[in-house]
Amino acid sequence: MLWVVRSIIPWLMFLAVKLGCQYCFITLRPSLGLTDLPDLPDDLLMTYRLALNGTTSELTSASSRGFLLPTDNATFVSNAFGEGLQEGTYWQGGGGGGGGGELLPLEKTSVTASSSHEESPHLKEKGVQQGEVPLMQPPLPKDDIKHLEDLEAPKDKVQPVMPIQKKGKLQEEVKFEKEVKLKEEDINLEEKVKLKEDGVKLEGEVKVEGEVKLEGEVRLEEEVKLEEEAKVEEEGMKVEDDLRPESSSRAQRHEYCVIGAGPAGLQIGHLLQKAGRDYIIYEKSNQSGDFFTRYPRHGRLISINKRATGRPNPDFNLRHDWNSLLSDRPDLSFSRFSSEFFPQAETMVHYLNEYTRRLGLKIRYNTEIRGIRLLQRPYDRATPNPEEEEEEEEEEEETTTTAKKKTKPARSFQMKDQLENFYFCRFLVVATGLALPNKPSFPGHHLVIGYEDISVNASRFTGKKVLILGRGNAAFETADAIYGSTSVVHMVSRSRARLAWNTHYVGDLRAINNGLLDTYQLKSLDGLLEASVEDMVLEKRGDLIHVHFPWDMENITKGASGEGGDGTSPYTPPAITDYDNFSLREGYDHVIRCLGFKFDFDIFHSSTSPGTSDSAAKYPDVKHSFEARQVPGLYFAGTATHSLDYKKSSGGFIHGFRYTVRVLHRLLEWQHHGVPWPTSTYGVKDLLSVVVKRINEADGTYQMFGVLADVLLFEKDGQTFKLLQEFPVRLLARLPELTGHKAGKVVVVLMEYGPDFSGPDKDTFRSDRATGDPLDAHRSNFLHPVFYLYRSLPSESQMLQKWRSSALPRPDHVHHVLEDFLTVWTAQQSHILPLRRFFEQVLSHDLRTRYDQTCLQAALLHARPPAPCYLGGFSQGRGVSMVTSLPSVVSAS
């Protein structure tokens, strides 16, 4: 039955055309199964849409706009027009309602043009150059694709033609000052077309007065000059010029610019939005978290997702949730998106994009920022002319030097994207992470496969010998993925393997990836050795890649045969050598580079480069306030700031930098907007309760141990204190300047490991690794709270004099809370009592809790009841005077 219906469709179309019924198909279309066609703008009607939906008027209207018809399909053309078109021609329509038109030849024809107006935004998205109209093909429903296979014209026969008229109308009259000449080398045009008309508005069709045959490539050599700027309204947008940098009046300007829509960029974006700041996030890809679409290569994250903790407290749960970003919404907890303990990278991509969508973050995608430079003028007056800026900078520097101004000069940042559009901002936050692979240069480095290009199909390495360069999680992840298929996996790095459960640094080798250690130590052909990769020499001999080092090159030269000297014949080992047992002597089928990533400094102009960190050259040089040391107003967020706690804490990972990003935001709020660091005020009688709650539930100080601390600010009256949470301990000397709070006597609460417990050469499983005696709490090895009391804030010079292994200088008093196997510090005798006595000693306050009954009993039996009875207001309204004792009253009577 279906074939019968299909066979009569062309005849119905033919009759509709002959009878002039332009609306017949509107009625017939549902019955013909043509209701699910894609909804397209009129100026993007495709050939295949015309083939399925079109009436004579639609075909004619579309062809009048210069769209190509698939004339190589004679059946379609015959059915649609009642006559056949020859292959290699296109239909030039004559009007929207009639059927008039011309058949023009189209053999090897390419028309380009230069115009004063832009193409449609739809064309730009397809990468179409100005003046070209390709055969556009937006996606179709699957059911329609099979109908189009025979309609697509061959690529070698179909060429784009210049549009005659775009949708919309020119609002100003167009006057052609010169005759448009169509020229082509060695080709004679049969007729010159003169397009010289004054006072004609291009509002409707454009009539072609005669047949024009284009036998070769035709180019418009002269631009059409318009007397006045013509504005074309298209798709509700005004297109005014070609793609040139925006003028200073139209350039985008924001108070905060954030580069990168990864976890750190989204976190700072949420905080800025919550504070009501003017910000924008620029992302070079088309989605948030694009890094995780490529890495880890084998798709499994090593950040834990512990969903069941046995606690309802959200702060405590974040201690064991290493993937969630901070927000006020419970539905944005990562545990709602995955039930896997080690989740997949694609889940992280989904989570980050949902975080973006649900919070409504302002992100400009497909914008690759480059050429970042610091300007010496406010961002609302900056211009996109670099030469002008340099001259103004020099003049302003001279003026500032002469006047010796004490105020900070107004600064801003200029940057541009891949389309040369300019952007300006007052403050810049770079959150691009480390995405540039480390590629050391050494002889033969071109023979290696990068981690970024490695195949995730393990079968490609079946029976192969593989050498992996590197010793981190990327290297071991790769080894774990392929060592079930390979014959041999060897791993080389300049330093020994650092195990995370030895060093307590999550960036070191995690147990989830260290399967190769088993096969190495259990002698199953795989192995690890230490050697400098930079000193390595790779040489291809035959089908294998051989590894040499400078100290071995002399023996290699002596041992190679005359034929092998050209590097083409199989490697011949030396007959007699001191190194005939060289570990890597047999050669490898593949050498894989897994040497980690580094920060991309190429996004900066040479005048604004932040420089590299002294602690690790792969990171930018950043102060503990997260501002670039060499560029004021330039801040970093996320992994790029990990140089501050490299191999010490968690600042390079989501569960760490989500807190350092919040610290950065609080610093910005006070420094640039006068919003003090948030604090809570309590009475001293509540001190013990507040502190115990924080050390047992706080997530920021727990994850960023040794870096972020709670600071207790005691007032002069001695009766109240403020709790200032998650402050960078390295900035303690500048606390009043950076937070807006005065500080006298302070107690710093910091989470620390024991000084001799962590390290790659430490035995973390020794029998005396833990202590349970409160008197030996200072010998605790595992993570535990430490209280530092300073009667006055240490100076910056004192901060440089570290005390033992701590990040702080020597305190006036210090107290260690005994480590606990459960990391729960609530034991009355082992934890609470020693802590209370510490505070009572340094504050001269009795912090014991008293009930009314005990206070009454104390008032009757003692000359002066304990202080908590006074502080608690026991005597108020109870007829008992706490000024004089009961024995005194009796003797007086």
Which helices and strands, and how do they pair?
Blueprint: H1 2-19, H2 24-28, H3 47-53, H4 56-64, H5 74-81, E1 89-93, E2 101-105, E3 111-112, H6 121-125, H7 142-148, E4 182-183, E5 218-220, E6 232-234, E7 237-239, E8 252-259, H8 263-274, E9 279-282, H9 314-318, H10 345-359, E10 363-364, E11 370-375, H11 386-403, E12 412-416, E13 422-430, E14 436-437, E15 449-450, E16 465-469, H12 473-482, E17 488-493, H13 500-503, H14 515-521, E18 527-530, E19 537-541, E20 544-548, H15 553-559, E21 590-593, E22 597-598, E23 634-636, H16 654-673, E24 679-683, H17 687-697, H18 700-703, E25 708-714, E26 720-728, H19 735-739, E27 746-752, E28 784-790, H20 796-799, E29 813-816, H21 828-843, H22 852-861, H23 867-871, H24 886-892
Parallel strand pairs: 3-5, 8-9, 8-13, 9-10, 13-23, 15-21, 16-17, 16-21, 17-18
Antiparallel strand pairs: 1-2, 4-5, 6-7, 11-12, 12-13, 14-22, 19-20, 24-26, 25-26, 25-27, 27-28, 28-29
Describe the structure.
- This protein is of the alpha/beta class.
- 25% of the residues lie in helices and 15% in strands.
- The chain is built from 24 helices and 29 strands.
- Strands 8, 9, 10, 11, 12, 13 and 23 form a 7-stranded mixed beta sheet that branches. Strands 24-26-25-27-28-29 form a 6-stranded antiparallel beta sheet. A 5-stranded parallel beta sheet has the order 15-21-16-17-18.
- Strand 16, helix 12 and strand 17 form a beta-alpha-beta unit.
- The chain is globular and about 105 Å long.
- The N and C termini lie far apart (121 Å).
- About 31% of the residues have low confidence.
